[in-house]
Amino acid sequence: MIRDYQALSRTWFPKGQQKIIPTYGKHWGAKLIGTLDYESGEVFCVQEEQYTAKEFLSFLERVLKSMKATES
Length: 72
What we know:
72 residues; elongated; 3-stranded antiparallel β-sheet
């Protein structure tokens, strides 16, 4: 899971002169599943809405199909 968190830190402003810092209001993330063929350097990666066992099994099936296609 890759998340888009803004770095939180403390700072100071003179009293009554605090700056308003805009934020998204939500945390955004991407669920990526991927493999790397270390011999060829080929990367196979997919992005999913959820990361569950169902999505992982679907990913493995896609990897197998991809491998069979490159062997032909």
